[in-house]
Amino acid sequence: xxKSKDGLPYSKEAAILEAAERExxxxxxxxxxxxxxxKAAGVNHAMLHYYxxxxxxxxxxxxxxxxxxxxxxxxxxxxxxxxxxxERIRDGxxxxxxxxxxxxxxxxxxxxxxxxxxxxxxxxQRRVALIAHRLIYDLQQELDTAAKGxxxxxxxxxxxxxxxxxxxxxxxxxxYPIIESVFGYSPDDRERFFMQxxxxxxxxxxxxxxxx
Amino acid sequence: xxKSKDGLPYSKEAAILEAAERExxxxxxxxxxxxxxxKAAGVNHAMLHYYxxxxxxxxxxxxxxxxxxxxxxxxxxxxxxxxxxxERIRDGxxxxxxxxxxxxxxxxxxxxxxxxxxxxxxxxQRRVALIAHRLIYDLQQELDTAAKGxxxxxxxxxxxxxxxxxxxxxxxxxxYPIIESVFGYSPDDRERFFMQxxxxxxxxxxxxxxxx
DNA sequence: CTTTTATTTAACAATTATGTTAACACAAAC
DNA sequence: GTTTGTGTTAACATAATTGTTAAATAAAAG
Lengths: 212, 212
Description:
mainly alpha; homodimer; DNA-binding; Tetracycline Repressor, domain 2; 2 domains; 9 helices
């Protein structure tokens, strides 16, 4: 049942999922209201319980999806072999930055919900750890080889490097409402700020790995 | 009325404030329950309304205080003149890092509450912006002078530099529950991780400003 | 066409949270 | 000792929120 009777391209179930995503992303689990979700989706609030039984069910559906996407974003950003190391890293930073720019609310949402209920994260955790370990292993090998060749500084821990990158990429989006006043309020200011930010992050990381 | 009848060093009002801080910091405004706060403070839940009228009042009391502290932490960290520029920055990074290490929940709390209710931030915003502008102006001058002398790279925007620093310092604490699996679960692992992290951030920033 | 299944709605039930009030206790001030 | 102000409690009121159900409607299957 993908189409409803009036021919719209998605069912009410999908409409609820979309509305729930917006509500949960902006207000978190505790702040979200099932009636608001129902209203935004244009359905009676009983529908929500009909399709998903409970608020928790609906929420987990959203959270799981978002954690998966967020994890993948890191893997796909840096999992592009075939480029020279420096280019691979530059490319990874930019891909990851673009992903966050397109999904600026995701990190705050995930961080919060995992923090406020770590057991929700349990299942996902092992899966992510496994995939992450492979990426880390690959990149570490490449870094070590490049270090032997004198192209980059020695003794880099790739886990720390990736954490540098995601910190620099994510935090400005998370903190933007607070730091806005320092960089200007107009939409133009905002765009300029994030363009500049992307370059800043690339520069910072390339300097970090450079052999001096 | 600072002492209660049983001679404890703080009144029930203060006990409520402490309990409220823990509750709000860990669950946010929406997730916090006034009865939980009252129970944790060891008072009847009517007391809470007697002293603070509403949950919102109590919350604002906490949020204002926390925003003030958070803002000050940046200013005091970097507002130490008299040191050579590089040392001043290293010192600032370490001070700021130590502050976050001592208050790891603060950034997530503030970012969330400001995001979910920006109007709460309005009053504070202008005040912070003003103080920030002076710090920024001072540091920018010093950076420009150092650049002319050939000690650091030219054309650094100090706002971006400070944002680099607070991103690197704050994000690892915020994301720790998620990335824990990559760095190990034991308390020892945790401590080792954050010690390493502090050095990583100093290294990254000093390389960022270095004249190559 | 009839039966069955899926979808939708309105009304209601139960629980939980916040906020109020009136009575009570206790100490200090007069 | 009475009054006054502060602190404290239990019980209640109100509103919001989640979840249920039974009946109505539409769609699909036979």
